[in-house]
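hiii, so i know i said id send this last week but things got crazy w the move. better late than never?? heres the sequnce for the chain we talked about at the cafe, plus the structure i predicted for it. fair warning i was half asleep when i ran it
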Amino acid sequence: MASLLNIGVNGLKAQQAALNVTGQNVTNASTPGYSRQRADLVAQSGGVSVGTFSGAGARVDKITRIADQFIGNQIRIDQALSSELNTFSTRIGQLEGSLFDDGFGLDSALQDFFDALNNASSNPSDSTARQFVLSRGESLAQRFQGVAERVNQQAIDIVASLDAAAKQVNDLARLIADSNVRIANVQGDQASGSINQLLDQRDGLLKELASLTSVTTSEQADGQVSVFIGKGQTLVLGAQAAQLDISSQGAVMLAPVGNSVSQNITSAISGGEMGGLLSYRSQVLEPAQNEIGYMAASIVVAFNQQHALGIDANGEFGLNFFSDINNPNLVGQRIVAFDNGNGSLATATVNVFIDDPLSFDPSDYEFRVAENGSFTIERSIDGEMVFQGASLTTPQTVEFDGLRIEFAAGDFQPGQTIRIRPYASIGTEMSVALSDVSSLALSSPVLIEAGVANQGSAVMTVGAITDSMSGMFGDDQSLVPPLLVRFVNDVQYEVLDNSNPGNPQPLNPDIGLQTYIPGILNSVLPYEQGSTVTHSSGPAVAALAAASLVSDLSPSPNNYPSGSVQITTLDPITGEVLSQPTVAIAAGSSARAIAQQISSLAGVSASARTSLEISNLVDYDSGVPVELAVNGQLITGFSSLDELADAINANSTLQSQSIVALSDGQTLTLISQQGDDLNLHFQGDPNESIEVTSSSG
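okay and structure toks below
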């Protein structure tokens, strides 16, 4: 009977314990972080007495925590992703508010500035309109400064938020390490269930840690867990916790367990609030900083270049309207030392110049020194290597993507890393350099006037001045030489040196007759910017024009001798003389054929023109009529050089051959614009004549 009573008592106690566990589960059903528990009962052995087995009922073997490790890991993964996306979304909303606020946006400021500029250009003598341009320019610069500073403040806030999150990570890491110690100490006491509360607490800490950064765990045999962040960097190892720190530039630094040397793990961090902050900074905020600075730099450079082409109220070429983006005080502030490695930037001088902001999209760059002393520069937006050097000795200058990086001084050691940020701060630096309204260069350096006898409908305007500092402009900002455009017929014109208005002369080199095409924009000068124009007229050129007094109108040979032409150029950088292949000229070649041969050379474009001067026409108007054949086309019925020129220009065959005649009444100039041979045949009575003179006299 006693044995039976003992079995009943032990069973009641076991079931009471199980009911207590059930009650605990019901009570904590809504408690955050609580895991359901289960009382596991086992039979309690008794003994054998007088050959009879006597049981002892049941007992609680252990109180098991119902938790699935896979589900726990997935919850932490989801928590990290949710926290990252929420942080990313919140920060983007703040940036949108900064960039698109009607009171701080750039669109209206740009429109106001160009409206003021357009008004002043139409009224350049109005000092109020000029002052308005300066005022609107200052407003535009201040607007850029305001937008850039608001974005830069976000960058500062990001560093502060990262620092606060890192401190939370460190606190949680220490608490998890402490939990590991307590769990290991009670690992053998499974029956009391006290370990379950510690496990719930540790899981809660891990979930909270996952809201800050992605974590992975590994459980040990004694119940302790190792916690890893980033790409497997250890944060917690048993009872020890690593230390996170945020540098002044916002880099995430980890001091590993048992090691006092910090590692830069910024690129490894993902997930959670820290991952969201870092993703937002690299994918949105820093590109926005660069785009704002790029826009400011483009406006400053383009507008300053255009302003320098104009003339101010004092008759001088325009100065910089906006402050130079390559101000000596600014070029040294465009680098950030991320990891100095074995070297120090304390004595380094690195200047970043922006020569052409429009040559490539804005980006940051990473400068690295390898173990062998070589160095590379990598473009951040696409990972392309833009420069590679065998060694870095100062001073040294490298150029890429419209930038010029000057390593002026410093000891750059292997392992050193520098981040180059050319555009990030330009928006905050934008300012107006002019203060005097008379310094606004609103006038063109080229004045165009129509001749008083001009009855045509063609209109000339200044399209663009590409280099107002070239030799075409004198010290008094006038064109050297002044140009005269004179139409010889409806579709052809010549450009003359008008230094002496009473006697305009061909340019040197003479560009010949140019074709005017109505209805489109025509360039006065036919050459591309940067071309070097030369003119050649050797003594043998006279042979290219033949005159005869014979009745046969077939062309005569020009008697031009054979020869060769070689063109050499001087490399402006190396000073090396570069020679093109020799061009062999066959005897009897026309100027047109020679030009075509020369044009086959790389980088060379040759044109040809053949010309004669006809003067001293003697026509007694008796007997045989005076006749002149030009390249087989018979011209009759003229008694003066003016009439002869009109008759030549009216001949459709000669027109198709681009042969024209110009007469001033005393001299007729006959021109083959393509460089074909000119053949003249003259007929008249005795003592009737004309005088034919070649271009070389």
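btw The mean pLDDT is 81. thought thatd interest u
miss u guys!!
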